[in-house]
Amino acid sequence: MNAPMPAGLRPNQQDRPPEWAITCPVPTCKARPGNRCTTPRGRHLHAGSHPTRLDTWLVQQHAA
Ligand SMILES: [Zn+2]
Predict the structure, then answer these.
(1) In whole angstroms, what is the distance from residue 8 CA to residue 23 CA?
(2) Average pLDDT of the residues in 51-63
(3) Does residue 36 sit within a domain?
(4) Is 57:22 a contact under the CB 8 Å cutoff?
(5) What is the distance in A from the centroid of ligand 1 to the CA of 20?
(6) Which residues contact 45 (CB under 8 A, 6 or more apart)?
(7) Which residue has the higher pLDDT, 12 or 38?
(8) What is the distance in A from the centroid of ligand 1 to the CA of 27?
(9) What domain count does the chain have?
(10) Least confident of 10-14, 30-34, 48-52
(11) Cα(30) to centroid of ligand 1, in Å?
């Protein structure tokens, strides 16, 4: 019952979300590549990044 989980069964479980490759487009955030998104008060975003950032990144992937 404790068989190791095969590789590839856990996608997107990295430390850094892929959308961190770009600068956050949210004006109040502007998190630079490799950095976690922050709120206007300078606190780290709980989710790690703004949905807009992920959206922008996805669009760029499709455009490439
Ligand atoms: Zn952000």
Answers:
(1) 28
(2) 94
(3) yes
(4) yes
(5) 9
(6) 29, 36, 37, 38, 39
(7) 38
(8) 8
(9) 1
(10) 10-14
(11) 6
Output the CA 53–ligand 1 centroid distance in Å. 6
32 falls within a domain = yes
Does residue 8 lie within any of the structural domains?
A: no
- Domain coverage including residue 46: 18-63
Burial 30-41 (b: 16+ CB within 10 A, else e): ebeeeeebbeee
Single-letter code of the amino acid located at 8: G
The reply to whether the predicted model has a pTM over 0.90 is no
Average pLDDT, the chain: 85
> 56 C-alpha to center of ligand 1: Å?
11
Is position 6 within any domain?
Answer: no
- Ligand 1 center from residue 10 Cα (angstroms): 25
